[in-house]
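note to self: the first set is below, dont mix up w the second
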Amino acid sequence: MPDVASQHRHGRGHAHSHGPIDPSIVRSREGLRAVGLSLLILLATALAQIVVFISVGSVALFADLVHNAGDALTALPLGVAFALRSARAEKGAGYFVVATIFVSACVATLGAVDRLINPQGLEHLLALGLAGAVGFAGNELAAVVRLRAGKRLDSPALVADGYHARTDGLVSLGVVASAVLVGLGLDLADPVIGLVIAVVILRVTWQSWHTVRAAPSP
């Protein structure tokens, strides 16, 4: 007997059943929806921070926006994996996420070390603080989207990316701290906080690698 939920009526008294929907297709659609939404959120966040960075030149903000942009790009291989409905591709996407986080940590470290060697004053501190707040809000929103979908779909790659985004949100608050400390006259606070952000990103890299590695192989 066909499932009532899968029947559609056309005209008067006529009904037919399409049968149950393949669970893998449902999972693919939900995964793509979560990945696409988080991509839009993080791209908007990174673009807003780039506008502020051009006028401010903060190393802490540079580290944060590089990481946010990299985090947004990790949505692409995840989207491909869900579109292919392949557990192997999904786990591979998880490793790509980890690699992207690591590269962003290296870029942030180089920027911070360069600014420590070549100090530079900062202006537009209010804009800098607001950029950090935008980074926090964007990452937290993306984290909620990814973690909910990752746990519901049992996707270690999405879960790893979700915790990654949540940590990024806390890291963005470091940009706010940089604006406050520089405003108090501690110019070296900006590159030092940039370096701390890079260390935090490396820690997230390690945690995410363990999360993806522990996932069952397809």
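second set (the one i keep forgetting abt)
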Amino acid sequence: MWNLLNVLSGKFKDVFFAVLPVTLIVIILNFTLVPIEGYLVWKFLIGSCFIVIGLTFFLIGVDLGVTPLGVLLGPVITKRNKLWIVVVAAFVLGFIISMAEPGLLILADQIDEITMGEISSITILTVVSLGIAILMVLGFIRILYNLPLFIILNIAYGIVLILSLFTSPEFLAIAFDASGATTGVLAVPFILSLSLGITSAKKDSKASEKDSFGLVSIVSVGAIIAIMLLNIATKTKEYSGVLENEKTESLSIGMTFMNNLPSALRDSVIAFLPLILIFVFVCVFSSSSSISEIRRMIFGFLYAIIGISVFFVGVNTGFMEVGINIGSYLVTLDSSNYLIIVGFVLGVVTILAEPAVYVLTHQIEEVTAGYVKRRSVLIALSLGVGLAVALSMLRIVVTEIQLWHYLLPGYLTALGLTLIVPKLFVGIAFDAGGVVTGPMTATFILAFTNGAANAHPTAKLLIDGFGMIAMVALMPIITLQILGLVYKIKTSKKEVIKRDIR
């Protein structure tokens, strides 16, 4: 009991400090640049509380139920050493975990709303999940047969580059945003635990260490390719985007939240149902878990479902609405600098407060034996993500700038670095793209970007309102590989000094 309370308080503190910076920025903007109506401020503050409580229970549920299930499934999938079992399991798990990812659910709903159902949320979810599933198969095969990660990534992104020549601008933005959104708070720990479960069975410990990274980066490419193929298949159809920010003053604030709870709970149960069925299947056909472990995992799934339901209520009832309002107002001011500066600050503080980023920075410091300090990694990541959001705002106000002007040189740089950076850092860097695209990026900053693109007279909502998540996911890939290069240079110098002393 005390252990659960300690975990609960620890998770609550992490999530609270992740949400607090955005909340403070909204309050400061309300008293300075952006006047926000009183009822919206209250909805935002109550929504923030719902998000903190919901994410706390959801993350505890992931730790108790989802992650242990992934670790348990790894050896179960590989112990019979049959390729067809690995292929089927990887495909099913990839599809299921993508369908339940909160970040992707929010992005799909936003696209559905903006296109007035022309691009439905179920279409986005299904197509992206199929792409994730197919690339999950490739990721599993790569781990089993020790295939080099940098070769797979270069081939995969080469395919993306070719498909991008036939992809419309709006779908290009959605494709890369889907890639970032699908590797969020549920998918990343589950995929990493699966990877750990598979690699732990390998005899070569050094290969296992390298192979435990990179699975997230491989599957995320599947989302990009899937959306691009969807666009190519429906090329003759043109889509338009409209953002309607409805006011709900007629209802009390409390009733607004309560009315959204049943649908959020229903959607959460539906999203988790396939994962629960897999859990039941594993419990029935595997004897490796004790009764206490099974009981703990059951409670984990209950916490996750309740938590994500409360989270969705907070996001959809006031939180994203205020983000849209702030973006819409800032873009109408005399100077576009306000929009760009606020975007930069939002990017910086969001990453500084992201709990998963702290885990990543500690991991890098341990792997490099302290040569690459976590403080320097944290500063580089926060500045990089701040720059990514700022550049996304610049793209809204300067119509000549297109998303591919950023992504093409960015990914060419990232892929070029894979050839010279230590292979361990390649996996860490590409996986980090999923770490930084957390709940705040997929909710408030996405709404902020949509609001700005919708209100700017020359911007196009479907083209300029998306692509921000893609930019945020790209920056860590470049930043951490550069740090890996620094680590390589430092290590080489140390070895030279040792040889000179001898």
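remember for set 2: Residues 389 and 453 are 13 Å apart (CA to CA).
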